[in-house]
Amino acid sequence: MAELIVEIHVPLTPTPGLDKGEYQYPWIDDIEEHLAQLDGSAGGEFDDGEEVGDEYLFFVAGATEVKLIELARRVSMLKGVPSGVYAIVNDADGDLGTGRRVDLG
Q1: Strand residue runs (E) in the chain
Q2: pTM of the entire structure?
Q3: By three-state DSSP, how is residue 71 classified?
Q4: Which CATH fold would you assign to the domain 4-17+24-95?
Q5: Residue 43 contacts residue 62 (beta carbons within 8 Å)
Q6: What are phi and psi of 98, to 5 degrees?
Q7: Which of 35, 43, 70, 93 has its CA 20 to 30 A from that of 19?
Q8: Which of 1, 6, 2 is nearest to 65 (CA)?
């Protein structure tokens, strides 16, 4: 069986209240920092995120589904993260965005 991967899908929504010249998605860096701090210690491993359409995706693996969903849920609750975050339970052999959807909000 292929390794379990949870994709964390975050709507690519600009942060309200920022000036036009400011980076509009500071929550991306916040999520990456949060996941990097947890890498390995929370029962999961983090891989770099990427922009896909109108969402930004983060990938976690290396733990049970329950632990990975819990980690994804904590990401969805970080300050500044847009609403509408959900997870896709997938595996390394699956196509991006396919699998079982889990609403986190």
Answers
A1: 4-11, 45-52, 55-61, 86-91, 100-103
A2: 0.89
A3: helix
A4: Alpha-Beta Plaits (3.30.70)
A5: yes
A6: -100, 155
A7: 35
A8: 6
